[in-house]
Amino acid sequence: MPSKVDPLDLIRTRFPGLEFRDARVIEDGWDSLVLDLDDEWIIRIPRRREVEEWLNREIALLPELATRLSVEVPRYELVARNGVVCAGYRKLPGSPAKTGLNELTGKDLGRFLAALHRFRVEDARALGVPYFDREGWQERFGSVCADFRRRVFPLLEPGERERAHAVFACVEQVDFVPELIHADLGPEHVLCRDGRVVAVIDWSDARVGDAALDLAWCLNGTPAGVATSVARTYGVDANLRERALFYHRLGPWYEVVYGLETGQERFVASGIEGVRARLPR
Question: Can you give the pTM of this predicted structure?
Answer without folding.
Answer: 0.94
